[in-house]
Amino acid sequence: MRSALPIVLALLLCLGFAVSGARAGDVAPPPAGLLWNKTGLPAVFPLQVKTLPGRDHVVTLIDAETGKEALAAYIRGGAFFRVLVPPGVYRLRFASGKHWQGEALFFGEGPDTEVFELRRVLRFETRGLGTKAGHIVDLRGRGTEAQITEQRICQSFRPDFPRPIIRPREDRRAVGPDYEVPQRRDVRSRYCG
Predict the structure, then answer these.
(1) CB atoms < 10 A from the CB of 132, how many?
(2) 139 belongs to a structural domain
(3) Which residue, 109, 30, 112, 110, is CA-closest to 72?
C-alpha cells in the first residue's frame, strides 16, 4: 500500500496542472509594473496602456537611435496600467500571452504568444516650463493596430509668500523680522491633455 502513495501523489500533481491551466515551465507572473530601467535616467513621463482581459503583456521601450532596450514593464490584461518612463524617443515592442516563462523568455514561443512592435515611435519629453509629454496606447482594437493619443501632465510651482508674524502684546517691541519666510513650496500636477 505504501508504494501506491507516491504514484497517487504524482497523479494528483499532474491533474492539478491540468485543472489550473498551468504548464510545465510556467512561472508565477511578476506584479504589474516596472520590470527594469536600464537607462539610468529618472522615469517621470507617463505611459498608459489599455488592454483586454485574458492576455498579459510585457512592453519593452527600445531607444529609437541606438536600438538598445531601455525599459520593460509587465501589464495584467484588462487592468488599469500606467508606468513612468525616462525621457527619450522609443519604439514600443509588446509581447503578449497566457503563460509566463520568466523575464528571459517572457511568454515563450507557441500559438498563445504574440510579439509585435508599434509602427510609430513615441517621444517622451518636457515641453515648455512645466509640461511632461507622454502617451496612452490602446491595444483593445483589432489585431495589432493601436490607437495612440498624447497624455500630458502640467505642473505648476506655487510659492508660499511671506506672512506677517503676529506677536503677543508684551512682545510687540521685540527686535527681529516682522515676517516669517516660508520653508515649503508646492508643486502641483494635473492631467492637461
Answers:
(1) 20
(2) yes
(3) 30
Are 55 and 76 within 8 A, CB to CB?
no
Interatomic CA distance for residues 14 and 8, integer angstroms: 10
Residue 93 lies in a domain: yes
Cα–Cα distance, 162 to 25 (Å, whole number): 63
Give residue-wise pLDDT tens across range 18-67: 334 455 457 889 999 999 999 999 999 999 999 999 999 999 999 999 99
Task: Encode burial over 16-32: b for 16+ CB neighbours within 10 A, e otherwise.
Answer: eeeeeeeeeebeeeeeb
pTM here is 0.70
* pLDDT tens profile 120-143: 999 999 998 888 999 999 999 865
Collapsing DSSP states into helix, strand and coil, what is residue 150? Answer: strand
Residue 55 within any structural domain of the chain: yes
β-pairing, 45-50 vs 131-138, is parallel
Looking at the structure of the chain, the number of domains it has is 1
Q: Are 71 and 36 in contact (CB under 8 A)?
A: yes
160 neighbors 140 (Cβ within 8 angstroms): no
**What domain range includes position 45?**
4-156
Amino acid identity, residue 181? V
- Provide the sign of the torsion angle of the four alpha carbons 32, 36, 41, 42, taken in this order: positive
